[in-house]
Every structure is written in structure tokens, then in C-alpha cells.
Amino acid sequence: MSNARDFGAVGDGQTDDTTAIQHAIHQGDGPVEIPKGDYRITKPIIVDLAQTGRRSIHGFGGVAKIIMAGPGPAFYLKATHGKTANPLTFRPEEWQHERMPQIANLEIEGAHPEAEGVRIEGVMQPTLTGVLIRNVHHGVHVTDRARNVIIDGCHIYHNTGVGVFFDHCNLHQAIIGDSHISYNRLGGIRVEGGEIRNFHITGNDIEYNNDEVFRIEDLPTAEIYIDIQDGSVREGTITSNTIQATPSRNGANIRIIGSKTEGNRKFGFWTISSNLITSQETNIHISSSLGVTLCGNHFGNADLRSLLVEDSTQIIVGANCFGYNEEYRNTQDSTGMKFVNCDNCNISGSLIHGKTEPFTNATGRRALVELLNCRRMSITGLQVFNGLPAGMYLEGCTDTLVSACTVMETRPGEKTPSIEWSDADATNILANCRLGATTNLSDALQQQGNVIQ
């Protein structure tokens, strides 16, 4: 064990402690302890595991602060891992020198506009625990390649870039858990490009990652933002998180932008479950994806709609509550879902409840549940209340089933269409539904004669 003060670090917030801490990393013995104090550095502390051997950096229960007063990351973890996580592919020197570097129990504060928190490159099993990162650009920046990343029990707060940024990297196995990730201008957790497998976001509070406190409205963002127009992301979960914000222009709580290559959707095999997702223009926006399951979530207080799905296939929307919180932001009609140019999707068992106040249709919405130009869709067992301007609206859909749904008004005196589906042909079925007093259906649907009003 080595103590940074034994290598000349002062920790008074004024002295440049870069050389002393770097010396402790290179010449110390295993764990490097940074005791209570404010340690100003002006260059990245490089932890090159191939040279230093196994290393960990500890801040004595969070009482140590690193002030990054120069550009780049405060700590740069780098190694030489170049293959998979299969044990048979590891070189002996990786296990001997490079596995599982840790940064724990300290604060990193930026004092330069280009400062970052931690950068990770080519590392197997990097582990961050109990780390506070604030006032930098990107909090945690993973580039090039990594395996088995764990970020647990951290606070990543008020940064001008992304809280946790996976930047065009080849990554398998990552877990972000039990952390508070908030007020990051360009997103809470962001993935751009690369090849990613086995990615898990669980048990976090992810909120207000937009432009509100920065007073800048130049780029749309999201609490969780996955953009793989030039990549591939498979096998992941977003589970048991609070994901909320204040509305921002074109913002979303979760935004997934898949590959635009025709017939080659490279985002999918994901589950989004048991989350509280509220207060943005759109709660979840999914595009160009294959195989996403949403269940057990509570959606609310969206400016436009709760769920927007475009150009996607094999999307399952199970038992969710699409509602709102009457205690705040009560002026918005804050529920609803829209599917555009999708196929082979199943929507079932959800409650979708519109607001009770008068509705202003400034967004061009046609109903709480909208399907446009979709194929082979199944909509079963929904309860849709207080839909404005209608409960359901379908247009240009084929081979689509709507069954066992209740679509009704509960507002006194309101008489709006329960379902508008005027162009349905014989490939579509509307069966065993309980509808309100008014509908707008095609002759093909009316001839089926199995709608209860």
C-alpha cells in the first residue's frame, strides 16, 4: 500500500500535485491511498497497467478530492486487452498485471472546460465504486475497447457532457448500478456506435440530463441515449430505475436510434422493465430496432406522448401504466403511444389514461393509441380512457387485430370517437371490444358485428 503524501502530494488545493500522484501510481505498491485533502492536478494521471501492474486508487471514504485543472481525464485507465472475455483468450500477463483496476471513494471536480473524470481504454474489469464526479465534461468516458465494466454506487453530477459515455467502443459485459446520474448536459448514459453486448442499467436515479440548468438549447438529449446508426448494440436491460427530467426541445427519457440500413436493424434483444419514466417531451422513443420488450413500467407527464416507435419490428409492449401525476405538471395531456411503419408487434394488458382537462392538439396527435402504416400488429386487452381527440386511431394498417379492449370516456359530457379506423380492409379484425358511444369504422369492420357499444 502506498500513500500519495509519501511521494510529495500536498493536498492544499493550490499546489500542483500531478507529479507526486503520478509517481505514487508508477512507483507505489498496489493500492494507492489518497488521504483527506484537495489535490490539484493539471495533467491526466495515467494508470498504464501493462507498466504498473495491478493498481487501485482509494480516497479514504470520500474525503479526498482531485481537482482537474487541465484538459483531459483526471484518471486515464489503459491496458492491452484485445480479444474476448473468454478465459481461453487471455494472455497470462493480463491476469498477472492488468485485471480489475479500481477507483473508489473519492471526488473528482473539474476546474478546466475540457476536464474529464475517468477515461477507460483497453481494460478488463475496470471497477468504479463510490466515486463522485462533477463539473467536468464527460464523467466516465469509455473508448476503443473494454470488457466487464462495473460502475456502482457512484454520483455523476452536473457535467457539461455525458455522465457515462460509451464512445464507439467494442464492449461486452457492462453494469451500471445503484448510482445517481443527473444534470449532465448531453445525457445521463450515452452510447454512440461501436459493438456492444450484455449491457445492463439497473437500480439508478437518472434525471435532469438536459439543457435546463445550462441554459443552452442546441442539441436534443435523453437520460439514456443510444445512437447506433454506425454500430451494433444487442442484449441489454434497463430495469428498476427512476428516469425523469424536465422537458427539453426534442428530448426523451430514453431514446434509441437504430441502424438506418434497410432490413438490418442493429439494436435489439433488450428489455425495459420496472422503471418509473416521467416528465419529458417523449418518455421513450425507439426507432429502427428489432426485439425490444417493455413491461411493468409506469409512464407519465410527457409533453407529446409516452411511447413513440418507428420503423421497428418484434416490439412487445406488455402490462404498463401510461398515466400521469396530478400533483404536478397537470396542464399536459401526458399519455399515449404511436407506432409508425412497424410490423410483428404485440401491445397488450396496459392501462392508458388521458387527462381530464381540455386538450389542445398542437402536436397533430390523432388519438391516445395511434398506428400508422403498420403490419401484423396485435392489440389486446388494453384499457384506454379519456382519449382525445380519439381513443385509438389506425390508418394504413394490414393484418392487424384489435381485440378485448375497453376504449371509453369517463369525462361527463364528452363524446369523442373511441376508435377511428376508416380504411380497414378484410385483413384486419376488430373483435370483442367495449367501446364508447361513437366510432368511425370502415364497412369491413362494421360487417364483423362483434363490437359492443
How would you describe this protein?
The protein is mainly β. The longest helix is centred in the N-terminal third of the chain and has 10 residues, at 18-27. It has a 42-stranded parallel beta sheet that branches. The chain is built from four helices and 42 strands. The mean pLDDT is 90.
Q: What is the fold's blueprint, element by element?
A:
Layout: E1 2-3, E2 12-16, H1 18-27, E3 31-33, E4 37-41, E5 45-48, H2 49-52, E6 56-58, E7 64-68, E8 72-78, H3 92-98, E9 102-104, E10 107-110, E11 115-124, E12 127-129, E13 132-134, E14 140-152, E15 155-159, E16 164-177, E17 180-184, E18 189-202, E19 205-207, E20 222-239, E21 242-244, E22 252-257, E23 267-273, E24 276-287, E25 290-295, E26 298-310, E27 313-317, E28 321-323, E29 337-340, E30 343-348, E31 351-353, E32 369-372, E33 375-380, E34 383-385, E35 392-395, E36 401-403, E37 406-408, E38 419-421, E39 429-431, E40 433-435, E41 440-441, H4 443-446, E42 451-452
Parallel strand pairs: 1-3, 2-4, 3-6, 4-7, 5-8, 6-9, 7-10, 8-11, 9-12, 10-13, 11-14, 12-14, 13-15, 14-16, 15-17, 16-18, 17-19, 18-20, 19-21, 20-22, 20-23, 21-24, 22-24, 23-25, 24-26, 25-27, 26-28, 26-29, 27-30, 28-31, 29-32, 30-33, 31-34, 32-35, 33-36, 34-37, 35-38, 36-39, 37-40, 38-41, ...
Key descriptive features of the protein:
453 residues; mainly beta; 42-stranded parallel beta sheet; 4 helices; elongated
The share of residues in extended strands comes to over 45%
Work out the oligomeric state of the chains in this entry: single chain
The stretches of 5 or more residues where confidence is low (pLDDT under 50) are none
Mean pLDDT: 90
**Class by alpha and beta content:** mainly beta
Give the overall shape, derived from the CA principal axes.
elongated
Q: How many individual helices?
A: 4
The percentage helix is under 10%
